[in-house]
Amino acid sequence: MATGRRLAGKVAVVTGGASGIGAETARVFAAEGAAVVVCDVNAALGEAVVDGIGGDGGTAVFRPLQVTDEEEWARLVAETEESHGKLDVLANIAGISGRDPRQNIQPTRAAGGLVEDQPLEIWDRVMAVNATGTFLGTRAVIAPMRRVGGGSVINISSICGIVGSFANPAYHASKGAVRIFSKSAAIQYAADNIRVNSIHPGFVDTPMTEPGHANPEIARKRLDATPLGRFGTPRDIAMGCLYLASDEAAWVTGSELVIDGGMTAS
Question: Which residues have CB under 8 Å from 28's CB, separation 6+?
Answer without folding.
Answer: 235, 238, 239, 241, 242
